[in-house]
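Run log // design_07
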């Protein structure tokens, strides 16, 4: 499952949810992320935790209760003007704290792997 419709990530998912898709793709459903009502093995989001602290705090339990793993590319220090990004969380600010895979000073990947092996 992809939250949003990042074109380069669509090949990785079977379904994507976006309230306002900007292009047509049969995988994209016009759905609210907070309406997640089925279980997914993996959920991916690209930058969506940056929509605000309250937004991230509300989204995390919604997603984590409905998947085995959650992968988020999270902006830390964008070097461009942002329209929607207003919150740039560090891993330790999130509950539960994710595993962090640092890429550079601009963004990092956070992974919550809940599946017990």
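design_07 sequence
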């Amino acid at each position: 499952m992809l939250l949003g419709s990042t074109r380069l990530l669509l090949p990785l998912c079977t379904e994507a949810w976006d309230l306002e898709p900007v292009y047509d793709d049969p995988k994209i459903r016009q759905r609210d992320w907070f309406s997640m009502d089925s279980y997914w093995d993996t959920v991916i989001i690209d930058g969506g935790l940056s929509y605000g602290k309250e937004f991230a705090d509300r989204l995390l339990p919604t997603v984590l209760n409905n998947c085995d793993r959650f992968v988020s590319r999270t902006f830390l220090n964008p070097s461009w003007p942002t329209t929607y990004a207003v919150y740039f969380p560090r891993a330790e600010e999130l509950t539960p704290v994710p595993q962090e895979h640092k890429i550079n000073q601009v963004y990092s990947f956070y992974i919550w792997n809940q599946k017990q092996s």
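The chain has a mean pLDDT of 94.
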